[in-house]
Amino acid sequence: MREEIGKRIEEAAKSGGFAPPPLPKGLAAEAQSGPSVEQMEAAQNMSPEDRAKMVGGMIEQLAAKLKEQPNDLDGWLRLARAYEVQGDSAKAVDALDHAAALKPGDPGIKLQTVSALLSGLKPEDALPPRAIAMLTEVATVTPDAPEVLWYLGVVAARDGRPADAREKWTKLLGSLAPGGEDTKMVQAALAQLPAK
């Protein structure tokens, strides 16, 4: 997820005309589950088409299992990640909606859903209203989440509210290590905002 959020931040920053800050180290760390060692070794010897077919089959098996066991939260999260890797953001969002129904109010699931909603957007595209609503909701629970601060700052900058963007990014800046690359990038984004 960290890589996806990084991509979205970069795309949003480009559209706003400023440099993106990388996410601070250790954010959005999540346990990754995936194919077994044997499956990975077998996949290395396959053609790209056969590999894609194998992965598709594994995803179909997981989706079928979840129809029989719809209360498997970890399964829905794995399925969402698999769909995101395949580039199918609509199916990823659907899987995350199932996960959210099992664990309502979980800010991590909401942030993953935001990432899926932003998947495939071009820098000039507006953030989807649902993504903005979810970010705003997460901000009520975890107002200092870097992803929330960054994206809501992007929304404010795009909407012509530089003071709001400045507030969000200044708060984000306060959570970053002084002198680090992340700090420099946020400072550069702040410098691009119009004067108060």
Describe the structure.
By secondary structure, this protein is mostly helical. The protein contains 10 helices and no strands. Helix 6 (107-118) runs antiparallel to helix 7, helix 8 runs antiparallel to helix 9 and helix 9 (162-174) runs antiparallel to helix 10. The chain starts with a helix and ends with a helix.
How many strand units? 0
**Overall average residue pLDDT:** 81
CATH superfamily: Tetratricopeptide repeat domain
> What's the main sheet like?
none
CA distance, first residue to last residue: 34 Å
Number of domains: 1
* CATH level-1 class: Mainly Alpha
Number of helical segments with 4 or more residues: 10
Shape call: elongated
The proportion of residues in beta strands is: under 5%
Low-confidence stretches: 24-33
Structural class of the helices, strands and pairings?
Answer: mainly alpha
**CATH fold label:** Serine Threonine Protein Phosphatase 5, Tetratricopeptide repeat
CATH architecture: Alpha Horseshoe
Fraction of residues in H or I helices: 55-70%
- The helix/strand series, from N terminus to C terminus, equals HHHHHHHHHH
Write a brief caption for the model.
By secondary structure, this protein is an all-alpha fold. Helix content is 69%, strand content 0%. It has 10 helices and no strands.
